[in-house]
Amino acid sequence: MGDGDAVNTSGRERADTAGYAPHPYIGGRTAVLRALAAWRMRWPGAPRVVVLTGSPGSGRSRLVTGFLMLCDPEYRERLPLDDLDPATVPPDLPPPAVPSPVGRTAAQVLWTLADHFGLPAVGADDVFTGLGARTEPVTIVVPDVDTAGPVRAAHEPARLVRDVLVPLAATGTVQLLADVPRELAAELAGSLPAGQAQLIDLDDPEWADPEGLVRHAETALTPSTGAAAPPYTADPAARRALAETMARRAGGSRLTVQLAVRSLLAHPAGFDPADASQLPGSVGEALDLHARRLGADPRTLRLMLAPLAFAEGEGLPVELWGALADAVAGRDMSRDLAEGMLLTAPFVQPVETAGADEAADGPDARAAGSGADVAPGEGRTVLRLTHPWLAEEIRAGLPDARDAQTRIAMALLAAVPGQDWSRADPYLRDHLAAHTLDAGLLPQLLTDPGLFTHADPVALRAAVEAVPYDALGAPARTYLRTAPLLTRTRASAGMRAALLETAFVEDGLTPYAEVLHGLGLDLPWRTLWSVPLTGVAGVTVGALAGQGGDGTEAVGTAEGSAGVSTARPVVALLVPEGTPGSRPAGSGGGPALLVHDLLRPEYVDADPARVLTPSDEARAAGPLGLSRGSDYLRVWSRESGEVVAALISDTPFTGADLSPDGVLVVATERGVNARQITAAGAPATPAAGPTVPVQSARVPDAGASHGLEGDPS
């Protein structure tokens, strides 16, 4: 431990004999609550960082929740504070920041903190620097670290500890309490000098609370309805005796006690309270004893629950349970499920989820293309196990967990209607990647642009980043480098498809870009070409005077009536001096100009002085206008004023121009590309423009991902 005896209030006798009421939500844990209260009020000798850990099912989450009730002004009013041990009640201070990591990436947790404290951060280091620069200490509580991440097999809790909690703990102005799995707790506590951190392990005798566990069991056994109750729960003395036996058999595990009580209340027949062997000593025994009491095979119960043990996200849709149970068992499980609701009831928790609506808000999302993934509507029922450790027990008890996951992944893939991801169940669309990652099959799945478009980008990105980069194919690498844009905003499927379409053309994967145009999403543009030309400082569209599209002589100006139809549309690129193919922009050296065809992927060997640019009047007369920011571009209809296409970039725009015919040329640090705006309100595609051409030059493969960067916007 990293603090003094004044904080390590291990004298349980003092807590039990003082005559104070236990915390009404926790039912005990007085010694830990005293330590946390001392931490909260920054008592002399108290640590700045507290790491709370314990075995799965030891009650960490409940303990932190109960402590936060004491820290929240609203909840404090509902608690009998005068009846509690004063040493367990922190002073009435502003509530701490509590970023929930449930289902979130480490970066999302960090940016949640940045938003909470109003930090103008651009990168992760800016968040820690901003917190360190504050004049007053800040209090942060991070509960349930073991639930972090949208993909279980991606090991997000470890990333959260190393990338967020360790730097937070090292920030001197941060007062941190974190609920961390045991395998990561020592790493976090050991990252600080002695005296700054305290490791509280709820399984250590110093912090264990057997009497609190008895009270927990006794309360759970108390009849709460008017239904007839067996004598051993209705009679207070018998109930107390049974609670003591349960707690003793459970060996300190609150989860084991909870499952034993749920099993008993669901099916009390045949239970003898005098026979301690009928009470479980572990989570696994709770499963097996319950099955045997109901005359069922424990293996059948585990097979029925296996799909829920592998479920991702909020839980498994009830409609998929049967098919996945069949897949895991290798036989028809419909009768087992139909007759086994009482068998599974103590271990299953139904959850009502909200209706799905992935469409983004705001004009950028509307301009990006139509096609929300699923229509908004009523919620649905999903099923999950009552505790994550129960899922771990079931997975560990299978003969071959990898094979079971493979069977589940194949069954989910087969359930996609015609492999059309727009018609797939949202669970299939968003979580199939997580299942295939756990089965070792994800790289084979990452070739479908439809999946890239319709899957939840946060979950899919987390899954793809968990695959070794060398194992990814070219389409997956393109997705990986584009993923930061997809996760930046709540973009619709149309916006995701549009961004991916350009990325595929940039990487020389034009056939994949063509697939995206066949998804029925009405993309706002078609990428005509892309060149990996770096250092471009500006772009200007125009027409090449004196030469038609076929190389013949032509006469006219960029917007002149006589020559417009035959003048060759081009774009002049402002490039560094010495760029191959460029010509000086003026006398005396300096930047140069490079001419490129506007509609085709080819450079033009021509004098830049012959490029005639549209006049201001011609631009104003066009149907579209262009607005530009540092990392976004918007094309809008002059007639309606509505945005018809919106671009965002992970690198700053260095140049952009829009032709009267609606061809948008964009330069970034990565290169230059041209996009024909096709959204409503845009002019028809110029006759000289071909369909998407074959790429003239391919950019190198994208570099390896550097992790789930968040975004403060």
From TrEMBL:
Region Disordered: start-end pairs: 1-21, 678-713
Keyword check for S-adenosyl-L-methionine: no
UniProt entry tagged with the keyword Amino-acid biosynthesis: no
Provide ranges: composition bias, Low complexity: 678-691
Task: Could you list this entry's UniProt keywords, alphabetically sorted.
Answer: ATP-binding, Nucleotide-binding
Q: Which domain of life is it from?
A: Bacteria
Q: Which InterPro entries match?
A: P-loop_NTPase
GO MF annotations in UniProt: ATP binding
Give the protein name, as stated in the record.
ATP-binding protein
Q: Which organism is it from?
A: Streptomyces kasugaensis
